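Exercise 4. Each item below gives a protein and its sequence. For each, produce the structure-token representation.

Item: OPA3-like protein (Aphanomyces invadans).
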Amino acid sequence: MSVQGQINTRSVQIKELPVDQAVEKGAEFLGEVLIFGVAVAVAAYEYDRSSKSGKEKERKANEREFQKQLEVDMRFRRLEHQMRAMDDQLNLLKSQLDSASAAIVRIQDERDLAMAQSQQSRWLRWS
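Answer:
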């Protein structure tokens, strides 16, 4: 049996292959398809594995960054709390200082008044 086909409007006569050659060429073709299929499967597997590995590395990097951010936030909150406590303590100390200053001024005024009265009574006794 011969097959006839047209290529670019030219008629080409294709010779019939003997059975043993056809089997050999078919087996060769199937072998190459099998090898190509295995190569494609291995390449796809490696690509998928590499992609998963890259995603895992990215996930771990994101997790580390998230942990660092949490630590920074916790440290900031701790410092903020300490600052509020120190501010409260400072206000208490200012209040105590104001009270002590007022007491000192009052005592000095009382002393000055007592001294003035004492000097006045001395003057009155001499006169």
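Check: The radius of gyration is 51 Å.
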